[in-house]
Design brief:
This protein is mainly alpha-helical. It is 65% helix and 5% strand. It has helices spanning 2-15, 20-35, 39-51, 54-76, 90-118, 124-169, 171-175, 179-242, 266-273, 279-297, 300-305, 309-329, 335-342, 346-359, 385-395, 429-440, and strands spanning 254-255, 375-381, 400-404, 411-415, 471-475. The chain has a five-stranded mixed beta sheet, covered by helices on one side. The longest helix is centred in the middle third of the chain and has 64 residues, at 179-242.
């Protein structure tokens, strides 16, 4: 992965124009726009009247040189002997604004690169961390090259400025020294040409180093951000570790798992139906989950940086996606086929059906009533009614076979409809005594509706019945 991410980061570094040459080009373009011409041409325009010839500089004298240096200070910054509290030079201010804008813009670009890897199933957090390391490495290479150049230009411009000050201060004496003075005048002219260029180049490189130092710090902060992402995703992993087999919502139903032949527990059945997944299958599942995340949660980064309750929502969504993935792999499997594979002998199948039917007997609320209910259904997957009808007719003539679109359940439904309300203990003599005791208590009512002042008694005649159901369910 390291080689792949490294190659990708280098490619994006070029595509996104994050290199030093592109940055220097932006600085130069901004300075040219500010001055209305290339900076070098602007410097020449300021100094040309002095540097045209030795005769010309001698004619104009030190006052003209001082005025020219003052003009240069307004463009490339103040000389060493001038206090630092004065307003910044034109190009200093231009470079400052451009550098700040570039840092903000490039931070967003770097963020997009890391988010892109975070949303790729084959990379995720490991890919993001590697991309950050590669980005820092590229930045340090740039700084290693440009920091010494900036330091060298800073020293050269400082020495040039100091030398100019010395030559201007002794200009009158230089003129009197003859041949030696001519060499000093030539040096003065050369420094007037070179000083503003060195000063400008030093300013540009300072902003280059500032920009990349800021980006390096931003990427270091991203390492801590990724650590926070990892904590949030560990919370998600913990949710899956705590998640067991989901209980049915109908607490009165009884379930027995039907395992394939040769399997005696859930792990055996899982290994039988799902041998070790291939790399391609895992990649397919990762891609499906990623599409789901983008459709329902926008991005994995959004989940990691917003409310923690989204972790539970993502867990449920991932479980649903995995269940669908598993269902797709189980295409063609059927609980009925599994049942007959498990119980190929007719007598064994009959015994199992009768046992399941007995297990589905309603747990009657009223112990005075015993016996089987008078309503029973056996639901089987569509298209398999005939196979079970023969068995159920022999074993359970009272059960009606119906079909359902579910392919993973055989379900017995039993209901006892012989209750009257007065059969319930809550409304028998015990319940009646409790009712009168509560009614006799001062400032207390047994009724939940206090706005109803008159209540009717329940008829004692058993012919006036209200159907209550007690359900039982069984998957053989």
């Amino acid at each position: 992965m390291r080689e792949h991410v490294s190659a990708w980061i280098k490619e994006q570094w070029e595509v996104q124009e994050l290199g030093a040459d592109a940055l220097i080009g932006q600085f130069q373009e901004a300075c040219e726009k500010t001055l209305g011409r290339p900076p070098e041409a602007a410097f020449t325009a300021v100094t040309d009247h002095l540097t045209r010839s030795e005769v010309r500089i001698l004619e104009l004298g030190p006052s003209a040189i001082q005025e020219t240096l003052k003009t240069l200070d307004g463009i490339v910054g103040q000389r060493a002997e001038i206090g630092c509290l004065q307003a910044p030079a034109v190009l200093e201010e231009t470079l400052h604004h451009v550098a700040e804008a570039v840092v903000k813009n490039w931070q967003a670009k770097l963020d997009q690169l890391t988010v892109h890897l975070l949303e790729q199933p084959e990379f995720r957090l490991a890919g993001v961390e590697e991309a950050i390391r590669q980005g820092i490495r590229l930045i340090e290479q740039i700084l290693t090259h440009h920091e010494p150049l900036g330091q060298e230009l800073s020293e050269k411009s400082t020495r040039a400025c100091e030398r100019l000050q010395t030559l201007v201060a002794g200009f009158s004496e230089i003129v009197k020294t003859g041949r030696k003075g001519q060499a000093l005048i030539a040096e003065l002219i050369e420094l007037l040409k070179l000083y503003p260029k060195w000063r400008y180049q030093n300013m540009v490189l300072r902003k280059v180093n500032y920009t990349y130092t800021s980006l390096r710090g931003y990427l270091s902060d991203q390492v801590r951000e990724v650590g926070f992402y990892r904590l949030r995703l560990r919370e998600l992993a913990a949710c899956f570790e705590r998640a067991g087999v989901h209980e049915t919502s109908d607490k009165t139903a009884t379930r027995i798992l039907l395992y394939p032949v040769g399997c005696n527990q859930l792990d055996d059945a899982v290994n039988n139906l799902f041998p070790e997944m291939t790399t391609e299958e895992l990649a397919e599942l990762d891609c499906r989950i990623q599409r789901m995340i983008q459709q329902q949660f926008m991005s994995l980064k959004y989940i990691c940086t917003t409310s923690a309750h989204l972790v539970r929502d993502l867990e449920n969504a991932m479980l649903a996606e995995v269940e669908q993935f598993v269902a797709d792999r189980l295409h063609g499997t059927n609980v009925v086929k599994t049942f007959f594979d498990r119980y190929p002998e007719e007598d064994a199948a009959l015994d199992r059906i009768v046992h399941a039917f007995e297990e589905a007997t309603p747990n009657l609320l009223c112990p005075r009533l015993t016996g089987h209910g008078d309503l029973a259904f056996l639901s089987v997957p569509d298209g398999w009614e005939s196979q079970f009808k023969k068995l159920s007719t022999r074993a359970l003539p009272q059960a009606r076979v119906i079909s359902t679109p579910l392919t993973d359940e055989l379900y017995f439904y039993r209901e006892d409809t012989r209750f009257t309300i007065s059969d319930l203990e809550q409304l028998d003599t015990v319940g009646e005594d409790a009712y009168h005791q509560m009614q006799a208590t001062e400032h207390f009512t047994p009724h939940s509706r206090q706005d109803i002042t008159h209540w009717h008694e329940i008829p004692a005649n058993r012919s006036q019945t209200t159907s209550l159901s007690q359900k039982g369910g069984q998957t053989p």
